[in-house]
Amino acid sequence: MSDKKYIMLADDDLDDRMLFEEALNEINNTIKVLLSIDGVQLMETLHEITPLKPNIVFLDINMPKKNGFECLEQIRLSPALKDIPVIIYSTCSHMDTIHKAFKGGANYFIRKPDNFASLKNLLKKVLSMNFELMHTKITLDTFVITL
Question: Which phi and psi angles does 32 have, rounded to 5°?
Fold first, then answer.
């Protein structure tokens, strides 16, 4: 990875993409954000930019064309992409969804916050984490990032 950090977000909701990008820019405007409108675009972009992989991929679950679980599976099965930290970023927080994301190999799970201040605080928390240590296996108890 280069010294320049960048994050990818795959989310079909335009408002969510705009808020995410704005929150991240307010927290740290040196981190570049690449946005994908669905899972197909995400996977195409990931394959195009290899070996310059993102530091983290935030992945919505419910997207058209290719959902987040399908993307997660493809990322984990790809030798070139399998080590990218993936954070599931979803409005759904049912335990079966969280378990599926955990078993699928996501590094963390975040329920989309319902306000901008909470989004900024969650992103600050993620950015304060050691990106390199996101690869270490965590337990289900520490899988969900909350404020």
Answer: -80, 145
Which residues are paired to 7 by β-bridges? 33, 56
78 closest CA partner among 113, 53, 114, 41: 53
**pLDDT at residue 96 greater than cutoff 90:** yes
The CATH number given to whatever domain includes residue 57 is 3.40.50.2300
Q: By the 8 A CB rule, do 5 and 55 touch?
A: yes
27-81, pLDDT tens digit by residue? 998 999 999 999 999 999 998 876 678 999 999 999 989 999 999 999 999 999 9
What's the structural domain count of the chain? Answer: 1
Q: Give the other-Cβ count within 10 Å of 40's Cβ.
A: 16
79 cis-preceded (ω within 30 degrees of 0): no
Q: Is residue 1 part of a domain?
A: no
CA torsion sign for 140, 125, 128, 4 is: positive
Structural contact between residues 88 and 117, judged by C-beta atoms closer than 8 angstroms: no
